[in-house]
Amino acid sequence: MSYCLYCDTPFMEQVSWSTFCGVGEEEQLCSACRSKLNKISGEICTVCGRMLLTLDERYYNNHICNDCTRWNENKMWNGVFQKNRSLYEYNEFLKEVIARFKYRGDVVLATLFHQEIQKMYDKHFPAHIVTYIPLSQERLWERGFNQAEEVARVLPKCHSLLVRLIDEEKQSKKSRNERLAKTTPFTIKKGVETFIRNADIIIVDDIYTTGSTVRQAGKVLKQVGANSISSLTIARG
């Protein structure tokens, strides 16, 4: 008998030869909760990973959505970012899971994503250097952990490469254009340049929404000599 990590409902885990031998995946969610997670599938935007099925055909061309086309046409950001891949759509259920994990201190919920994030890494980003979006010191003190780090730590070659200079709340009060026009909220951590130069780097975060956060972080990594920047996230907003 197992208990759902989210709703605490008891359930009988299906046993296969792989799980019996200790090499299979351990179920952490009951079937009802797992059914509410909507995996990204089918045709996606080759840049941001958005499911194209959710868009009218007017809003994408050659498997690239209009948002990503605008990013690529902006001289300030062209060439900074390669691609994002996300595990799930950011629906109401996942929104609540992430809120409980991120804001209410239920850090064990990070383990719900470890197996799938490892699979996604192995499929799309083998041998890439891994880092994650940092929190400001104030926010880290308040929460006691960094949600992106808790997801990223199971991946190989994971390093803390970035420092956040500007508090997230202050950034959130600005418009998108203001955030992009101002100085980046990130800088490079001292002594990590050798991990960055000529490296293909994956930035792990919880949600990809507009792509501005990973691009701002990616830009400072590129300035130090990173070869390419991509991101790996739990949810595609």
Please, could you describe this protein's structure?
The strands form 4 sheets. This protein has a 4-stranded parallel β-sheet. Strands 1-2 form a two-stranded antiparallel ribbon. It has 2 domains: 1-35, no CATH class; 38-236, 3-Layer(aba) Sandwich (Rossmann fold). With 237 residues, it is of the alpha/beta class. It has 11 helices and 10 strands.
Uncertain stretches of 5 or more adjacent residues:
16-23
Instruction: Tell me the CATH architecture of the largest domain.
Output: 3-Layer(aba) Sandwich
Helix fraction?
A: 25-40%
Measured between the Cα atoms of the first and last residue, the distance is 34 Å
CATH topology of the largest domain: Rossmann fold
Number of strands: 10
CATH top-level class of the largest domain: Alpha Beta
User: How many structural domains?
Assistant: 2
Order of helices and strands: EEHHEEHEHHEHHEHHEHEHE
- Which structural class do you get from the secondary structure elements? alpha/beta
Compute the average pLDDT: 90
Name the overall outline.
globular
Computed CA radius of gyration, to the nearest angstrom? 18 Å
Q: Mind describing the biggest β-sheet?
A: 4 strands, parallel
Instruction: Give the number of helices.
Output: 11
Please report which band the strand proportion falls in: under 5%, 5-15%, 15-25%, 25-35%, 35-45% or over 45%: 15-25%
The strand line-up of the biggest sheet is 5-10-9-6
Keywords:
237 residues, alpha/beta, Rossmann fold, 2 domains, 4-stranded parallel β-sheet, two-stranded antiparallel sheet, 18% strand, globular
